[in-house]
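ESCALATION

Customer reports they have been waiting on this structure for their group meeting. Please prioritize. Original submission:
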Amino acid sequence: MNELLLVVTIAGERVALPAAAVEAVVELDTLIPVPRAAPHVAGLSALRSRVLTVIDCKRSLELGSSDCSGGIREAAVVDFDGHHYALIVDLVEDVVEALSDSTPVRATMGGGWERVSQGMVDTETGPLLLVDVAALIGGTAEAKAA
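Update from on-call: job pushed to the front of the queue and completed.
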């Protein structure tokens, strides 16, 4: 397979993002709220003169929300459809190599995880859920309808 994966923790779960989709890993310290934005949009931030739409991954997955009240938050910066997004995660762990292609998940997951799942991939540290970055950015069906 040889695909590189960024291992992150979201809502206490270790998952993988395709490393090819990630431009940078950053620590956000400033977050500007956006009135009337979808619930999973935590706000806006800036990185090297670029505006980033900040996505609260926990809220996108309908698993509560990240504490964005102050302090530094870890995020993976991605470029999707010509726009830059920062995906707030609990922890950025490592970059690892996928040892297999993704395979279907054979267990029932919560609704949010089902929506973002691209399958399971084997790594040196065990199997990880491969997360669809576009689905995280898109949020819930309710957010898309708004």
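Sent to customer with the following note: The two ends are 38 Å apart (CA to CA).
Escalation resolved.
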